[in-house]
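Methods — Computational structure assignment.
A single polypeptide chain was analysed. Its primary sequence is given first, followed by the predicted tertiary structure written as structure tokens.
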Amino acid sequence: MKSSKSLIAVILSVSWLDMSAQIEWAGTSEPVLRESVASSTGLDAVYVAPSVDGLSITYTGGNASSARWSRFSNLGGGYAEEIAVGAVLPAPESDMGYIVETSEGRYIFWLVDYSRHRLSLGSLSESAGQDCGRVALDVSGTGDEIVYYSVNGRRMTISRDIELSYLTLSYDEESREYKEVDASETYDYLHPVLSAPAPLCATGFTLKGDKFLREWGGEISVESPVYEPVAVEARTVAVQQSREADNEVNSSEGALGGSAPCVVDFEAAVTDAAIFREWQFSDTPDFDDISLRVSDLSFTHSFEEQGVTYVRFYCANADASCDYYSETYEVSIGESFLKCPNAFSPFNEDGVNDEWKVSYSSIVSFECAIFNRGGHKMASFSDPSQGWNGKYNGKFVPAGVYYYVIKARGADGRDYNLSGDINIIDYK
């Protein structure tokens, strides 16, 4: 019994020194924590003590023996009353402001007794009335708002940094997938119902705190049952496949569409609760009339009709209480045209006009045949991006006049039945 009393005496003799303020705290086994405050409060600091029971404050600056101590409440420093003279202030009151004044200046601070605001945590569970953007959690326990007052009596709050941690999903741009990530929210004090961004995957919630207990090595926590997500989210990508045809006129200028056939790769990534999902196609921007639905997350579609097609992605959870619409992609296909040159010079193979090719846009069906004067077929092809190099059976044909016959159809429904002369010119 005697040794226990000696141990207690040793603990209570420990002093915690705030070097910047030249203040010592005695009578506590845990450090008094200093909170920085804005200069506009008129305070130099806010201090949080584990308890004021047995606490004393010693001013260690110059002229400490003549230090004058004053105390003020929520009314502010203008109503401060002098309470002691000397270096030591024994038995300070909790949740009060103090002014230490000497010939060297004054030091003003607010003192909080944490034992009057101790955090306790009971249970954590999903609250009724969830919505798609936020999750609500019922909390039992105590952890009131810790306040202090500025010199002019303005009410301020010290954040307790009570932390709620859980898992959610975040879209990874590189892999184009949703991946699990840690998420957290911080609260100034304990509310009976906590609100946080809705998780996008199944997760448990952990509530822990506060920062004062954390500093004193006594942080507490509570966990919730597993939460099943209801919120949905998606990310979509639409990429048009490129063609290298130098004779095709494409006026899309970076937008989707241009010359048909326009082939676009669509891809969507969704979060866990997105049970129903589909791509929707429409001729109207408000999607009053949906002409095509595709349930695959990723697919390729060829646009072969002139005009604008609107495409969006839609997904929803099991009961459609939460849903998501992507941005609307506009694929604009221009009118068709087809023009045929009447001469080329293949023999010198100088890279200029070496091949006979049509100039075209939005041609979705194409057949071309080239004949000599005797009606013998020299070449044929079904892709308007192709052409004739002036050869037959691997050898150049003689210079002169040849004939083409073309049957084609445009994305706008226009039929082309063309024929004409081709002059092969020898520039050797």
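Note: The chain has two helices and 37 strands.
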